[in-house]
Amino acid sequence: MKPLTIVSSRTPTGSLLEVAGDLDHSNAQQLRGAAVGAFLSAGLLLVVDLGALGFCDSSGITALIAVRNHAVAAGAAVILVAVPETLRRLLHMTGLDQVFDIRDTLTPHPS
C-alpha cells in the first residue's frame, strides 16, 4: 500500500489538489479534509489531479463525491484530471462519469 499524499495549492482559477498514493477507507477522510481546507467560492474551480493515484476503493469514491458536494455547495465547480483508467472505468460503471467533469489534462476544452 502506498501512503496517500495530498498537495493543495491555489491557482488563478481556484484550488488544485494533487492526490498521490492509495485512497481507501483508512485515509479517505484526508481528501475530504483537503477539500474543506481548499479556497472555494462561487465561480471558482477545484481541480483534483489524480495522475499519481495508485488505488481507489469505494471509500475513496465516496470521498470524491463528498469533495464534489462540498465544492458545489460553495458555488465552485470540480474537475477531475488524469483519472487512472481503472478508476475511470468504475466511474463509468456507476454513472459518476456523468456527475464529474473528467479531463485528461488541465488544458481547457476547445470551444
From TrEMBL:
<keyword id="KW-0812">Transmembrane</keyword>
<keyword id="KW-0472">Membrane</keyword>
<comment type="similarity">
    <text>Belongs to the anti-sigma-factor antagonist family.</text>
</comment>
<dbReference type="InterPro" id="IPR002645">
    <property type="entry name" value="STAS_dom"/>
</dbReference>
<dbReference type="InterPro" id="IPR036513">
    <property type="entry name" value="STAS_dom_sf"/>
</dbReference>
<protein>
    <recommendedName>
        <fullName>Anti-sigma factor antagonist</fullName>
    </recommendedName>
</protein>
<feature type="domain" description="STAS">
    <location>
        <begin position="4"/>
        <end position="111"/>
    </location>
</feature>
<dbReference type="InterPro" id="IPR003658">
    <property type="entry name" value="Anti-sigma_ant"/>
</dbReference>
<feature type="transmembrane region" description="Helical">
    <location>
        <begin position="34"/>
        <end position="55"/>
    </location>
</feature>
<keyword id="KW-1133">Transmembrane helix</keyword>
<dbReference type="Pfam" id="PF01740">
    <property type="entry name" value="STAS"/>
</dbReference>
<feature type="transmembrane region" description="Helical">
    <location>
        <begin position="61"/>
        <end position="83"/>
    </location>
</feature>
